[in-house]
Amino acid sequence: MGFGQAQGERGIMGTHFSSLFFDSPPVPRSIRAIGEEKEFPPGSMLVENNAPIEGCYYIVEGLVFAVDFTRNGEKVLGLVIDRDALVGETSLLLDMPFPMGFQAQIKTRALFIPKADFLDLFHRDKELSQYVALLVARKMFAVKGFYSNLGKEPVVWRVCNIILEFSHRYGKDFEGGTLIAFPLSHQLIADFANANRVTVTKCMQSLTKKGLVRRINNVYGVPDVPRLEAYTKTQASSYRNTL
């Protein structure tokens, strides 16, 4: 059975939309030339919280969260990186531990750049120093955007927003709709949404019954992206307060 209506252009959500991801500026070839490739399984730490680091990482592919943990062991997100960006570079430049750790959420490939090599390249390569300045600025705005609506918007809005973000970033045309080519689990959505997994599961079941999302061979699909965007807008607190 097909999805039905063809996928449209990405809708404009205005104040009802906040981005989970940020796009890194183009990574200089020099940084990729000196890295040693490593692979991290889900749950492993690339960088520990408040610990000295011996180098930084260039994320080739995967999903990495900047995370902290409460006394109860609950995960607190600070930044989301999935590809083509450095992590840990700020600690190297400031010569101090980063207050949050970096944890792989799915299998992640990364290039490790030793501290001495990175600092040497940073001081003599203008392209790299400009890249790092832009990267840090984009990360700062990404964190602000990530948290801009978490406190005031309901869980259903957050879940819909996450599905939309992944459909735009990892979507593939499939039967007139969009297939999300990413291993998106309920727990991962819960981490993004700052909600518990049971609540997220109920939201996903509701969205499935409404025909807004569809489960296909262990991945999710969105039959009609504009329709899900329109529904997401109606779930925003700012929208409901105007009714």
Can you walk me through this structure?
With 243 residues, the protein is an alpha+beta fold. The protein folds into two domains: 29-148, Jelly Rolls (Sandwich); 155-237, Arc Repressor Mutant, subunit A (Orthogonal Bundle), CATH 1.10.10.10. Helix content is 39%, strand content 23%. The radius of gyration is 19 Å and the shape is elongated.
| Widest sheet: strand ordering | 1-8-3-6
- Identify the overall geometry: elongated
Helix tally equals 9
Q: What pattern of helices and strands is seen along the backbone? A: HEEEEEEHEEHHHEEHHEEHH
- Spans of at least 5 consecutive residues whose pLDDT stays below 50 are 1-18
Which CATH C-level class of the largest domain is it?
Answer: Mainly Beta
* Averaged pLDDT: 83
Alpha carbon gap, first and last residue: 37 Å
Level-2 CATH architecture of the largest domain = Sandwich
Largest sheet, strands/sense/barrel: 4 strands, antiparallel
Beta strand count: 12
The overall number of domains is: 2
Q: What is the gyration radius calculated from CA atoms?
A: 19 Å
CATH superfamily annotation of the largest domain: Jelly Rolls
User: In terms of structural class, how would the helical and strand content be classed?
Assistant: alpha+beta
Beta-strand percentage range = 15-25%
Name the helicity range. 25-40%
Q: Kindly report the CATH topology of the largest domain.
A: Jelly Rolls
